[in-house]
Structures are given as structure tokens and as C-alpha cells.
Design goal:
The strands form two sheets. Strands 2, 3, 5, 6, 7 and 8 form a six-stranded antiparallel β-sheet that branches. Strands 1-4 form a two-stranded parallel ribbon. Strand 7 and strand 8 form a beta hairpin. The protein is built from six helices and eight strands. With 150 residues, the chain is of the alpha+beta class.
Length: 150
Amino acid sequence: MVVLEGVEGVKARVGEELGVSDWHEVSQVDVDAFAEVTNDHQWIHVDVQRAKDSQFGGTIAHGFYTLSLGPGLAAGIYSFGGFSFGLNYGLDRVRFPAPMPVGGRVRLRARLIEVADIEGGVQVKLTHSFEREGAEKPVCVAEALGRMYV
């Protein structure tokens, strides 16, 4: 676990890989629950029988499901110290270069790529690359933005 301590500690780590999370199994139960919450019931995600005949050979996770794993997986890689609070500020570029098959495992690789001064603290930009076990291409790459206040 990397602790990014205070403004100067955060700035000192720009350009560094912060680490890689543990593997997380993507289950059909979780994908179905995500479909219920988001009302996104596209068959490639939830119809196990029909998806067997698709080019993927089975169901695949929603791209936004994979993206939503980011905060939980990131919590096992890095944290911020020396700030009064932090906020999710959003995302810049997000891509889903490859499918994430249900039943497979995914992990997060995080890199701190930018820190900018803002009133009361700093804004950080991290590349979150979601890697599928056994695959060359990531299943999601996103630039996550956070604001940390002193």
C-alpha cells in the first residue's frame, strides 16, 4: 500500500506507478446485479445461454461495471494522507479496448500522471488500467481525477 502523504508527497510521486491490486473475479451474479441497478439488460451481459453462441463464447461484463470496480481496487493500492478530505472529481479519457468475460479475473494497475494546484489543495490525475488475467490488452483504461483538500 502506497500512502501519498500531503501535497509535497503527492507531487514527489508524479510519473510513478503506484502498484497493482489483487485479482478480482467477475461473477455473473455481480454483473446481473449491476444490470438491475443500471437498468442495462443488454443480452451479451445477462443472457448466459444466448451469449454462448456469440463471438465471445459467453457473457461479458458491462464496460461501466468494470470501471466501477476502480475505487475498491484502488483502495488496495494507494491512499492519501495529510489531507482533510478528498473527492472524486470525475474522469477524463475512458476506453474499453477489450471485453471482460464473466468468470474471468481483473486487476487494477495505477499510475499517478499529473498533480495540479487548486484552491485549498491539489487535483490528481491517475491512469487506471484494468488488466484481464491472461490477456494482452487491458479491458478498460481510464484517467481518474481526484481533488485532495488540506
